[in-house]
Amino acid sequence: MSGLLATFAVIWRLARPYFFAEDRRAGRALLAGAILIELSLVGINVMINQWQARFYNALQDRAWDAFVSELTNFGMLAVAYIVLAAYQTYLQQWLVIRWRSWMTSRYLDQWLAGANHYRMQLRGDAADNPDQRIAEDIKLFAEKAIVLGTRILGAAVSLVSFVVILWALSGDAPLHLFGYEVSIPGYLVWAALIYATIGTMVTHWIGKPLIKLTFEQQRYEADFRFNLVRVRENAEQIALLKGEAAETARLQHRFAFVIANWREIMTRTKRLTMLTASYTQIAVVFPYIVVSPAYFAGKVQLGGLMQTASAFNSVREALSVFIDVYRELATWRAVIARLDGFEAAIAQAKSTTAERPRIEVHDSGDAITIAKLDVQLPDGKPLVSADAIAIAPAESVLVAGPSGTGKSTLFRAIAGIWPFGSGVIGLPAGARVMVMPQQPYFPVASLAAAVSYPDTLERFSAAQIAEAITAVGLPQLVERLDQEAHWNRILSQGEQQRLGIARALLQKPDFLFLDESTASLDEAAEAALYQLLKTRLSATTLVSSGHRAALSGFHERRLTLARDSSGHRLREHAPA
Predict the structure, then answer these.
(1) By C-alpha distance, which of 227, 231, 232, 283 is closest to 256?
(2) Which domains does the chain have, with CATH numbers?
(3) CA 121 – CA 115 distance, rounded (Å)
(4) What does pTM read for this prediction?
């Protein structure tokens, strides 16, 4: 019971925000419409139950006029039921897409806001495959919440409605055992309750492991799919290393988890299906067995027998809704657990920025300032320390040091996405900061949109984009501005780095950090690009990291990372 209440609490926490959000009126109206139709369908079922008594009595009495009249009544009820059922599905689907759209936007905002997605990776949180949680789990959550919720509500209303009918019919068709009439008020209700309770308890006992198995299946499937995408993204490196055999073995190993878990699901589903099928088949004749003694004793007509059996089945079905939807509930609970874990991981990533001690980025004057900075790894180990460092506007500074000394992490801290550590970094208020990594990122889009990223394409004219691409030495790409492609995959590393410089020329940031952003180019090309930056972005503060000695000629100052007892300390370079 405690687990059930905890699950309901999570469902409420996940579902509540939408129905109190800006789209709440439409969402509530669609939900109310679906519920109203469900109640109407229950009402029609009650009328059909009453119709059965009249129809079968007309057959037993061979009353032609009554028979024709009841057929007409049934036709009207059937048409109403069909129309309502169709519109209920329509309203449910409409609500699903609106709810899913809102939740997707909310989760995307929370996941991507303030570099949360990056911090979640750094912390190694258990929210694996966020793509699946946003694309698939939200869809399943909304669908099953509406369909299962409506179905369970309908079952509850049906239970109340038909219990009243069945209780009254229990008096009209009293229990007969061995030729004797036994007075048990509402005995048909108790029989349905006992039958459904036994079936529900056995179903839960057999099917409970499906919840965990379904959760694991979704995780294994997503992990396998993610690794297939990784192979596609890194096809060139795998081909150069002739790693096809290793990749095949690795993918087969991950797929083995999919197969093994699926076999567990098969075994458990087979047992559950055998139970539910047996339960459903016995239920076909069970009410007749219970009521037939009263019928053969002449206490009830054929119409009463059929109405009683129908009402009994309606009560049994309402009580057995848990059995009928058990597999769907198992899938839904797995989805709920995944979304709950995803929200927890996002909240934990957000809390990282509020933890103490932490690296704080404050507004400063015109310069970048660093005071008492201690950059740490996520596990708390010291990496970089710096104090009393200032970089003036339009200054060019080279940050040098051996590989692994933390140059890239220092740039991440200045950009405000690395929270681990302590100290204060000052940036001018409203300053535009661009950090360009060694491997630039380009979205799958037109070349013009990829170079304009993260701004929209409308900010720059085609002529501006073409001029920037030509300036960095890629005039042959100008004719492909409107071509949409996966540019990170089809361009060489050097071409990608040139396009990164073109992006900087368009953006014109106040502070530009180049983290070995020209390392794939030869020295002549590197020199030409730095000269281009110095000419075109003369007002931009340029901070670079790299290993080539030639870089010193393009920078006014040099800061060096050297190891001491507290890690790697950033110091002003003292010429020999």
Answers:
(1) 227
(2) 2-352 (1.20.1560.10), 359-572 (3.40.50.300)
(3) 10
(4) 0.69
